[in-house]
Amino acid sequence: MCNSRLKSPMAQIDGRPVLQPASNRISQNPNQTSPRKLLTKLDGCKEIKPIASLKVSPPVSPKPIASKLVKTPKKKKPNVTANESVILVPSILTELKEKASFEREERKIRAAKYGRVGSLKSETKVVKVAPLSFEKNGNNMQGEKRCFFITPNSDPVFVSYHDEEWGVPVHNDRMLFELLALSGAQVGSDWTSILKKRNDFREAFAGFDAELVAKYKERKIGSLCEKFGLDLAFVRGVVDNARRILEVQAQLGSFDKYLWGFVNHKPLSPNYKSSRKIPAKSSKSDSISKDMVRRGFRLVGPTVIQSFMQTAGLTNDHLVSCHRHLCCSALASTYASSTTTTS
Question: Label partner for 74 (CA 20 to 30 A): which of 7, 56, 82, 301?
Fold first, then answer.
């Protein structure tokens, strides 16, 4: 049976009324309030505005809490009355006046006793420094300048070596052998310590007689190292050099002729004015070193050969200001003239 309370709704489809079932319709409760009425009620009296119309203000940052400043108690000034302040200032002034007058009196007494002293500008005088001087055989050698490596603290042995041997042309085979050995021993040491051991070197190597040294065997070499505290490699190098010198003498006649042939039998004279210009090695020492290495010599690097050339007089590396520069040049010229006359 059809319920009389439910009215079937009429719908318009293509302009024609069509009856639809009433069971699909939702029955409305008369006591139920609509959503719009709920929005308009706030606690029964106030109306809620739409959310879109509300203006959102930014959050207010909290106020910083003011830090409580600790007030330092002020130092109380000493209670000085006006009369006391007036008294302090004159006392200081009187002290200064008394001090100035005392100094004035002292100057007067000094001037009366020693005479008046001029100003500082008049007192300053140019003091000439005396040239470096050393005593040689008890005679004072003042006014003679030396090379840069001679200082007031230099050992007398080293000074005499500079004044008597360094830069003097050497043409004796035994002396050339000795200077070559000393130049090799000087590596890693200094000339002063080597010169002080010079007698030990001469004793160890038989006065640098190449024929005797060339016959040294391993047992003899070991005993020399223990007796004189010499390096094994150095002793073996000196023995090998003695054997090479004998070969050069057999081939060219003398070791002197072989060495001086590299400089055309005339010492080099660079005429250095400054110590900075003196090289540790040169192209000439490099060429001599290469040829000696080719022949089998040992301890003959370019730096060692440069030192040997300076010692043996193959090059006159004395500074122009040194008093030995002219002496070595004169010795070289006399030897050159003597060789030309004999030839």
Answer: 82
